[in-house]
Amino acid sequence: MASRSAQRAGDVAWARTPKVNGELFALTYGAMVKRLVEDYTEIDEVNEQLEKMGYNIGIRLVDEFLAKAGLPPCQGFQETAEVIAKVAFRMFLGVAADVTSWNSEATAFSLLLADNPLAEFVELPRQYKTLCYSNVLCGVVRGALEMIQYRVEVTFLQDVLRGDDVNELRVELQEVLSEDLGEQYKDD
Amino acid sequence: RRRADMFVIVGRSEPLYELELSGGSGASASGNLDQFIIHSALDMVDTALLQHTSLFLRTVDSFGEKFVSAYVTPSHVKFMLLHERNKNEDTIKAFFQEVQELFVKITLNPFYTYDTGRNPAPSWSHPHPNRCPNLLCLTRPVPRPKPN
């Protein structure tokens, strides 16, 4: 099954990547989020900043991923989704995600994360209820997909920190961008 | 049966957490006395620190029939328990060690401002039975909400 070979590729990629201490990673991210929350007055702005940071990470991360993972090009959006969930998430976060809830046109899906290493010790205070603590992940997925010509919108549908059972990221395809060399190279 | 009266966590400059374990009668005079006993035992904790090499300092002070046991974390946060005569120090030590594990978890929360009593996360204001099993074996706790 395509998904099982993606899973195996994910495990292999995870075994090969250099590791960093999980606690250090979680604490660094937590310190950064805390700083953002103190600097911006509105929680929505914090969410937006986290997403923008993720976007900047994603556009660079995708090249690293494609170089290290050594997978053949994906045949379509569905295969792309499987690879993101099983290989990329496993390689960079250490946990694989599940792809579910495809819509009827196969242009939107959900990524389910059972546990989120970013939010390992976190408990959200009551006044930050609307904070999407791991919004950076949404930005990373959006940035990475944009580099491979898919323009998507990614939102956090469910968050364990806000009381839900799983973390669910909803990825919706907006547009498939076409390879464009730019005005000066167009044949007249 | 009530065997412990009060539990306080003291940071470097102020108490971080206070829990009164007296059974409901709530006489305010005796409540203040418990706090006074624990705070006056703080000096004894510092003396005991110089003598002991371990984190558990056993009983550092006594006042009449009440004893104060202390446990100091490596970062000098003091856990102090006011209790009646208890021959079995291991239960107290085990309790302190469990509290330390919970305390470390709370400290790792990025939204907790270190070394203050202000913990905005909801789960710290009441001793949840699942999180403090040893507390239950010492006594039945009557939680007092901590002002934020």
Can you offer a commentary on this structure?
The complex is a heterodimer of chains A (188) and B (148). With 188 residues, chain A is an alpha+beta fold. Chain A has helices at residues 2-16, 22-39, 43-69, 77-93, 135-147, and strands at residues 98-100, 108-113, 150-158, 167-176. Chain A starts with a helix and ends in a 12-residue tail after the last strand. The mean pLDDT of chain A is 89. Chain B is of the alpha+beta class. Chain B has 4 helices and 5 strands. In chain B, strands 2-1-5-4-3 form a 5-stranded antiparallel beta sheet, sandwiched between helices. In chain B, a hairpin with a 5-residue loop joins strand 4 and strand 5 (78-83). The termini of chain B are far apart. Mean pLDDT of chain B is 73; it is low at 24-28 and 127-148. The chains are: A alpha+beta (188), B alpha+beta (148). Chains A and B meet through helix 2 of A and loops of B.
Distance between the termini of chain B: 31 Å
Mean pLDDT of chain B comes to: 73
Quaternary organization: heterodimer
Following the backbone from N to C, one meets helices and strands of chain B in this order, namely EEHHEEEHH
Query: Total number of helical segments of chain B?
Result: 4
